[in-house]
Every structure is written in C-alpha cells, then in structure tokens.
Amino acid sequence: MKRARRWVAGFAVLIASGSCVEAAPAPQALPPAVIVTPTRPVPKAPPVPLGDFVLKGSLIQGGLVLGMAPAGTSALMLDGAPVPIAADGSFVIAFDRDARPVAMLEARSASGETISRTLSISPRAWAISRLATLPKFPVPPADFDRIRPGEIAQINAARKVPVDSQGWRQPFLWPATGRISTLFGSQRIYRNGVAGAYHSGIDIAVPQGTPVLAPADGVVTLASDHAFLLEGNLLLVAHGMGVESAFMHLSRILVSPGQRVLRGQVIAYSGATGRVTGAHLHWSLRWWSAKIDPLLVAGPMSGTR
Ligand SMILES: [Zn+2]
C-alpha cells in the first residue's frame, strides 16, 4: 500500500517540474517634464549604505526562510538567480531537498554597492528504503503516453500564471491533521539499483471527505476538472513570491482557478483519486522549482484527529 503511494507521489516530482514567472510591474506613465532653474547647486545624494540581512527560518535542506533585505537594496540574488523583494524589503527563499551545503545571498543597491552573505545549509538524512522488487508501471504505457503530456502542460501553464498574494508571509496551517504516513524526501531504491523519485510532499492519512484547509492565503491556479493519472483531483494554490501548495488525490474541489482563498478556508475534501491505494491527503510545497518540506514550514502538528 505504502509502496505504491510513495512511488506515485515521487513520480509526480519528476513530471511536475515547471517554472514560474513573477508578474511584471505595470508600466507607469512618466510625469510631465518640468523645467526648473536651480538657484544654487543641489548636492548629489550620497549612496545609501546597505545594512545587513535579517533571516528567519531554517537554513536546512527543504527549509523555507523569510527575510528582510538590507535597507537600500534594489536587487536581491540567491546563487546568482534573482529573488523578488516586496515593497517593504521582505522576501522569501527556500532550499530544495537536494540543496548544496552552501548558498550565496547577495543584495545590490541602486548605486551598485553589494553585500553578500554565505549561508550554510544543513544536510538531512532522508528515509531511503531498498526494495527487492522492480518498479511497476502504474498505467498502460500507451494510455500514459496519450494522456500525460496534456496533464503536464496544464500543471506547467498554471505555474506560469502571475499571482499577487501575501500568503507567503503568513504562518502556515496544516491543511488537515492526522497520522503522517509518508514523509517528504523519502525515496526507494529498487532491486535493479534504480532510485525512484523522492516523495515530493507529505502524506497525511485522513479518511475520504476530510475538509482540506488553505494553509495560507493564496490564489487558485489549477483545479482539475477530472482526475489526473497520478495526482488524481489536483489543486494548486499560489501563495505569492513563488511559494505554491499542491493538494493531490482529492475527492472534491470547492474552488476555481483565479479564486482567492483565505488561510483556514475549506477548499477541498480529501479522497483517494489518482494512483493511490488508500485515502490520504498529499500536500506539497514549492518555492519556484525548489521542493520544500511542509513539516518544516507548518511546524509540529497539534490537535491530530
Ligand atoms: Zn504523497
């Protein structure tokens, strides 16, 4: 039972990769030109010195960190890739399950001054199980080849939808509480030595029909109108700044693409659709293409039922 579930969810990691784009700022009209005759020379403003970063969160594989950029930052980069910054200077970064041990965070001021910080990313020991069996293909190959590309295209298109949400700033709720049946990052190695894709999210063993809550504010980017081969009924919610939740195997989805959802709102019911052998809720979190661990973001589960 557990084996198939892991395989399916892990497989989804491989095929559900896509990239997201930030919303381009709306073009602003230039103010009309005004000719001013200076009465005395205007001193040039000195460059604003950069301060230091404030970071809050786990510098660990699968971890998510909220930050405040140094005052005067006009551009921010993580390992050379641009990171969007909110108007108040805050930002979010995260570290993939397989993130390297060192990352470089760099802020640049409008005058070209830079400040960088080397981040040490703690490694984790992932649950690896070695099996005496070979992987099984869950769907007849002909059906898979015919149907799957369209599903992947839908997922990738959803991840390109520009979203404006502040949910990424909020403390994340558990969308459902119950026994955690498969951890994020776990992986299987088969008899032939081939490693399966790792589990991209966390599985919560809840009965069919359990309400699924939005863990934070967001915008629905995909609400599948039929069960996908692997994910079943799939719901994607973007929380802004590249942070995204995916909920899989749902029995019913209550929201529609483009709809805003609020933290704690019931957005779906759990189920057993797609490639599963039993009812549970699979919850994945990503920051752009980095897969992150919901357990680190939502914290210890309380009030299990
Ligand atoms: Zn799963």
Kindly summarize this structure in a few lines.
This protein is mostly beta strands and 305 residues long.
Question: Which keywords apply here?
Answer:
metalloendopeptidase activity, Glucose Permease (Domain IIA), Dup_hybrid_motif, M23ase_b-sheet_dom, disordered N terminus, 8-stranded antiparallel sheet, mainly beta, 4-stranded antiparallel sheet, binds zinc ion, signal, M23 family metallopeptidase
Written account of the structure:
With 305 residues, the chain is mainly beta. The protein has 2 domains: 191 residues, Glucose Permease (Domain IIA) (Distorted Sandwich); 67 residues. It contains 3 helices and 20 strands. Strands 9, 11, 13, 14, 15, 17, 19 and 20 form an 8-stranded antiparallel beta sheet that branches. A hairpin with a 4-residue loop joins β6 and β7. The N terminus is likely disordered.
What is the number of E strands?
20
Task: Write down the CATH topology of the largest domain.
Answer: Glucose Permease (Domain IIA)
**Helix run count:** 3
* C-alpha termini separation: 22 Å
How can the largest sheet be summarized? 8 strands, antiparallel
Integer count of domains: 2
The helix content, as a percent range, equals: 10-25%
Q: In what range is the share of β-strand residues?
A: 25-35%
Provide the CATH top-level class of the largest domain. Mainly Beta
The hetero molecules present are: zinc ion
Can you tell me the CATH architecture of the largest domain? Answer: Distorted Sandwich
Structural class label: mainly beta
Average pLDDT rating = 85
Give me the CATH superfamily of the largest domain.
Glucose Permease (Domain IIA)
Domain M23ase beta-sheet core: 198-294
GO molecular function: metalloendopeptidase activity
InterPro entries: Cell_wall_metabolism_enzyme, Dup_hybrid_motif, M23ase_b-sheet_dom
Keywords: Signal
